[in-house]
Specification:
A 5-stranded mixed β-sheet has the order 1-2-5-3-4. The protein has 7 helices and 5 strands; from the N terminus they run H-H-E-E-H-H-E-H-E-H-E-H. It is α+β, with helices and mostly antiparallel strands. The chain has a domain at 105-254: 60s Ribosomal Protein L30, Chain: A, CATH 3.30.1330.60. It has helices spanning 2-17, 22-125, 143-146, 156-169, 196-213, 238-244, 265-271; strands spanning 128-133, 136-142, 177-182, 221-225, 246-251. It is rod-shaped, with a radius of gyration of 52 Å.
């Protein structure tokens, strides 16, 4: 602007010196003033433009930062969605597993109730009793009914009782039975039985063979002898000894009823 004023003054002097008419002189000054005004306006507009550019740059930086935040939010939402979907699938799997276990438990209880009902007459007559031991149904029969003292051959009364038991066991599908022989703590030492181990085992094998001949599928039968080492009562009394001389028919759990140990498979392999 100072340059225009100087030029204006110089032009005025020159015009005056040259004898230029006042009208032209005023017109020249007016033109200079117009140019001065336009320059001022241009300078102001340029300043405003620079300010706007600066503001736009700042806004652009804010928007860019916000986009990054939004991108992170979107990624987090996607991650949360994936986690929720995974949790939902796991919840569904656990619900199905629980439902399956409940159905198996109901079927198992139905089997137990049916057996109790079928054995009610023998229970009332004292030929056997039914117990639940460690979640398993155990049909217990006194050795005094089944065998003579120190022997492993069934009595007539024992055969009759076992025939009734076999008629029930044969109707239960897909269930394994373990016949377990038990004795009291009085040691035995005969030509045939050197200890209670041999006596208890031989008695359980005898019962297994009888059940097989009576119609129970041998695939579902097994025999075990425990001698005096799993007493049901104290051996300090006559009554306790009588309770310990027994045959137990144990309903073994199916594979579906056993805990899932698949997670230990890799650990077992590492240990080998």
């Amino acid at each position: 602007m100072r340059k225009l004023i100087i030029l204006g003054c110089a032009a005025t002097i020159l015009l005056a010196g040259c004898g230029i008419p006042e009208e032209e002189h005023n017109a020249a000054l007016k033109k200079i003033e117009d140019l001065e005004s336009k320059l001022d306006n241009a300078t102001s507009a340029n300043k405003k433009a620079k300010e706007q550019i600066a503001e736009l740059k700042a806004e652009n930086q804010r928007l860019a930062a916000r986009l990054i935040e939004l991108g992170e939010d979107v990624n987090k939402l996607k991650s949360d969605k994936s986690t929720l979907a995974s949790d939902l699938e796991e919840a569904k799997r656990l619900a199905e597993e629980l439902k399956r276990k409940q159905e198996l438990q109901q079927a198992r209880l139905a089997t137990f109730r049916n057996m109790l009902s079928r054995f009610s007459e023998m229970i009332n007559s004292g030929k056997l009793r039914v117990r639940i031991v460690r979640g398993r149904m155990v049909v217990e029969m006194s050795s005094n009914i089944l065998f003579p003292s120190g022997k492993a051959k069934l009595t007539d009364e024992g055969q009759e009782a076992l025939a009734q038991v076999a008629s029930v066991l044969a109707t239960i599908p897909d269930r394994d039975f373990q016949v377990a022989g038990h004795t009291d703590n009085v040691p035995i030492n005969t030509a045939k039985f050197r200890s209670n181990w041999e006596l208890s085992t031989e008695r359980s094998v005898t019962v297994v063979k009888f059940l097989q001949d009576a119609g129970v599928d041998a695939v579902h039968l097994s025999a075990a002898g425990y001698a005096e080492y799993q007493p049901a009562a104290s051996n300090e009394t006559k009554e306790g000894k009588a309770q310990n001389r027994r045959i137990e028919i144990v309903l073994m759990p199916n594979l579906d009823e056993l805990p899932d140990l698949s997670s230990l498979e890799s650990e077992a392999k590492q240990g080998n």
